[in-house]
C-alpha cells in the first residue's frame, strides 16, 4: 500500500471550513484514498473514500488531484466535535488486508 | 454506516488474570476482523487478523499464546489477554470488513484495559 504524508497538526476556527491535505505521490492505479478520524479515546470512524473523482457525503468532501498524488479532505463547517486525529490511508479496494495507520493530522477546532 | 460493537469499553483487572474482549458486527457479516493496539499519543498498531473459521494471523512480535483470538462466527471475534501484566495496559480496538462489495472497514469503540 502507498505511503501517505500528512501535517502533524492543524487548527481551524469553528464554523469555518477545515481543509486537511494528504500527499500520496506513490499511489498506484487501483488504490483508493480512505479517510478516517479518531476522536480521543474512541475507535476510528470512517469518513469517506474515493478513487479519482471528487466525492461528497453528509460528513465531508474529498478532492483528489488529477494526477492522484494528493488529496484534500474538506469539512465544510467545522464544529468543536470535529476535533480529532484525521488519518489518510491508501489501499487497493479489493484488499482484505488491514488498514495501515500513519501518524495522521491532529485537527483542533477552536471556538 | 455499518456498526461494530466492542465490549467492554473499559476493564480493570489484576495481574495474572485473563480478560476477554468481544467485537461484534451488528448489521453485517464480516469474514475478516482485525485487532489493533494503541498506546497513548500513538497511532494504531495491527496485532492480528482474524478470519472466521480459521486461525488468526499474528503480526511479528505479537505473542499468539498471550493474545488469543477466536473468530467463531461471521459476526463475532474475541480477543483474550491471558495472564495480563501491567505492560499489557493499552487501548485495544477491533475492526470488521463487510463481506461483499463494500470496501471500507468499520471500527469498534475500543476497550481501555488497565492491569493493576
Structure description:
The complex is a heterodimer of chains A (111) and B (116). Chain A is mostly beta strands and 111 residues long. Helix content of chain A is 0%, strand content 47%. Chain A has no helices and nine strands. In chain A, strands 1-9-8-3-4 form a five-stranded mixed β-sheet, with no helix packed on it. Chain A has a four-stranded antiparallel β-sheet with strand order 2-7-6-5, with no helix packed on it. Chain B has 116 residues and is mainly beta. Helix content of chain B is 0%, strand content 51%. In chain B, strands 2, 4, 5, 6, 9, 10 and 11 form a seven-stranded mixed β-sheet that branches. In chain B, strands 1-3-8-7 form a four-stranded antiparallel β-sheet, with no helix packed on it. In chain B, strand 9 and strand 10 form a beta hairpin.
Q: Could you write a compact summary of the structure shown?
A:
Chain A contains no helices and nine strands.
SSE blueprint:
The complex is a heterodimer of chains A (111) and B (116).
Chain A: E1 9-13, E2 18-23, E3 31-38, E4 45-50, E5 55-56, E6 61-64, E7 70-75, E8 84-92, E9 105-110
Parallel strand pairs in A: 1-9
Antiparallel strand pairs in A: 2-7, 3-4, 3-8, 5-6, 6-7, 8-9
Chain B: E1 4-7, E2 10-13, E3 19-25, E4 32-38, E5 45-51, E6 57-58, E7 67-73, E8 76-81, E9 90-97, E10 106-107, E11 111-115
Parallel strand pairs in B: 2-11
Antiparallel strand pairs in B: 1-3, 3-8, 4-5, 4-9, 5-6, 7-8, 9-10, 9-11
Summarize this structure as a short list of keywords or feature phrases.
heterodimer, A: 111 residues, mainly beta, five-stranded mixed β-sheet, B: 116 residues, seven-stranded mixed β-sheet
Amino acid at each position: 500500500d502507498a505511503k501517505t504524508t500528512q501535517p502533524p497538526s492543524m487548527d481551524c476556527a469553528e464554523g469555518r471550513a477545515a481543509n486537511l491535505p494528504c500527499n500520496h505521490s506513490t499511489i498506484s492505479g487501483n488504490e483508493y484514498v480512505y479517510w478516517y478520524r479518531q476522536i480521543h479515546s474512541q475507535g476510528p470512524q470512517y469518513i469517506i473514500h474515493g478513487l479519482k473523482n471528487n466525492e461528497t457525503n453528509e460528513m465531508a468532501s474529498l478532492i483528489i488531484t488529477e494526477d492522484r498524488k494528493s488529496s484534500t479532505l474538506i469539512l465544510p463547517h467545522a464544529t468543536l466535535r470535529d476535533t480529532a486525529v484525521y488519518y489518510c490511508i491508501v489501499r487497493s479496494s479489493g484488499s482484505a488486508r488491514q488498514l495501515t495507520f500513519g501518524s495522521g493530522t491532529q485537527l483542533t477546532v477552536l471556538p | 454506516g455499518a456498526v461494530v460493537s466492542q465490549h467492554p469499553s473499559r476493564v480493570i483487572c489484576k495481574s495474572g488474570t485473563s480478560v476477554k474482549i468481544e467485537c461484534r458486527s451488528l448489521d453485517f457479516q464480516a469474514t475478516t476482523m482485525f485487532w489493533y493496539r494503541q498506546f497513548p499519543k500513538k497511532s494504531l498498531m495491527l496485532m492480528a487478523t482474524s478470519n472466521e473459521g480459521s486461525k488468526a494471523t499474528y503480526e511479528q512480535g505479537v505473542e499468539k499464546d498471550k493474545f488469543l483470538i477466536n473468530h467463531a462466527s461471521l459476526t463475532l471475534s474475541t480477543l483474550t489477554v491471558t495472564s495480563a501484566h501491567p505492560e499489557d495496559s493499552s487501548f485495544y480496538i477491533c475492526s470488521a470488513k463487510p463481506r461483499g462489495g463494500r470496501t471500507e472497514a468499520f471500527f469498534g469503540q475500543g476497550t481501555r484495559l488497565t492491569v493493576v
